[in-house]
Amino acid sequence: MGLFSFIKEAGEKLFGGGDAHAAAPSEDLNAKAAQAIAAYINTQNLDVTNLQVQFDATQGKVTVQGDAPTQAVKEKVTLCCGNVANVQAVDNQIIVTNPEPEAQFHDVVRGDTLSAISKKYYGDANKYNAIFEANKPMLSSPDRIYPGQKLRIPAL
Predict the structure, then answer these.
(1) What residue ranges of the chain have pLDDT lower than 70?
(2) What is the pLDDT of residues 50-75, one digit of tens each?
(3) Cα 46 to Cα 65: distance, rounded to the nearest angstrom
(4) How many CB atoms lie within 10 A of CB 43?
(5) 70 vs 4, 24, 53, 97, 99, CA distance in Å?
(6) Which of 8, 22, 112, 152 has the most beta carbons within 10 angstroms of its beta carbon?
(7) What are the residues whose beta carbons fall under 8 Å from the beta carbon of 144, sequence distance 6 or more?
(8) Do the Cβ atoms of 105 and 152 come closer than 8 Å?
(9) How far is CA 16 from the centre of its chain?
């Protein structure tokens, strides 16, 4: 899992846009943004231990480290970090204790639905719930996805 790119303007508003742009000369603001992202990850109950998050506003880049029990948890952390406004890239260095195959990822575009995405990746629109479950708890409803969001598409 390498460096993932995200759309900077899309995502959760965890810290003020002005703060993030002003963070370039201020390590304090970078640290506050990193704390906000770490708190967001923790609210998702993803069972990551030794979590460390750094944010570099000049690059819009989050670097995350720690230990995760599964590849799915590692990938969900990537999505938690990347689906935050003002984040353009995520370098996920989390170590997985029980390795498994990596999932695919899909960038949501205007007009996408989980059913349409399911049809594209699985050949069956009715398997949309697998995508929804793979992106919980970041998704609260299968009907609430937005352009610019990145979704995890697990193997069936």
Answers:
(1) 1-2, 4, 7-26
(2) 999 999 988 999 999 999 999 999 99
(3) 14
(4) 10
(5) 18, 34, 19, 6, 6
(6) 152
(7) none
(8) yes
(9) 18
Which pLDDT does position 66 carry in this prediction? 97
Contact call for residues 104 and 121 (beta carbons, < 8 A): yes
Element counts in the chain: helices (H) and strands (E): 5, 7
Q: In terms of pTM, does the model score above 0.85? A: no
What is the SS3 assignment for 78?
Answer: helix
What pLDDT shows up at residue 11? 58
Buried b (16+ CB within 10 A) or exposed e, 65-87: ebebeebbbbbbbbbbbbbbbbb
Q: What confidence score (pLDDT) does residue 22 get? A: 42
Residue-level length of the chain:
156
